[in-house]
Write a structure and sequence with these properties.
There is one protein chain. The longest helix has 9 residues. Helices cover 13% and strands 33% of the residues. It starts with a strand and ends with a strand. The protein is mainly beta and 70 residues long. It contains one helix and five strands. It has a three-stranded antiparallel β-sheet, with no helix packed on it. Strands 3-4 form a two-stranded antiparallel ribbon. The mean pLDDT is 88.
Length: 70
């Protein structure tokens, strides 16, 4: 089976298909993406092109992991 794991990743390490586990905001509090939104190629490009992309705090995403042993 599969289980859902919430991980914290840097904005620049996001990958297409990941789902945000919480709202993503800039340091000033402006809302960028809402919780539950899936990362698309266009969204990824917009986030990485932000002037302060490197300064954004890590974001929590839902990853689906195989529940295998190893």
């Amino acid at each position: 089976g599969q289980r859902r794991v919430i991980k914290e990743v840097a904005v620049l390490a996001l990958q297409v298909g990941m789902v945000f586990a919480e709202d993503v905001r800039t340091k000033t509090g402006a809302l960028l993406v809402t919780r539950g939104h899936e990362v698309t190629p266009g969204l990824l490009e917009r986030l990485c092109n932000l002037q302060d992309a490197r300064a954004l705090p890590p974001v929590k995403v839902v990853m689906v992991a195989d529940a295998g042993d190893g």
